[in-house]
Every structure is written in structure tokens, then in C-alpha cells.
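dumping this here before i forget
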Amino acid sequence: MDTVGNRSAAVEISAIKVAVPEMATWVLDRAMQAHGGLGVSQDTPLPELYAQARMLHLADGPDEVHKMVLARRELRRYPVP
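structure:
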């Protein structure tokens, strides 16, 4: 964004808005799995962190919207014969 502007970085921005929440929930899910029953109890911060990470999927617009924008912009690069 700093070098090419928001419009030119739109594909990368949409990709980041999908990838970051996905990775955060994946990491927290793995941590909860590793801790077993303790991972879902209120004795650790994991359940609260997971809930916050899950909200990231919706906070800046639903993931599906970002995926749709990503697909549309990528497909625009290839002309239909």
C-alpha cells in the first residue's frame, strides 16, 4: 500500500484479510487440541482468544466477500476468449 497505493494492492489486501484470521484460528485450534480438556476450560486464555480470532473472520467483512473480491480481481487479469 505504501509503494503502489490501495487500489493496486487490493488483491493482496483481500488475501491478507482472509489468511490472517484463518491462520489465527488454526493456531489457536491446534493449541487447544494440544492442551486437551484444559484447552477448552476457562483456566487458560485459549477459549477467549479463539472467540476473538473467530470474530476476525467477520470484523472486516465476511471471509466469503473477500474471497469473492479476490477471485473477481484475479479472473479479470485473464481475458475471456
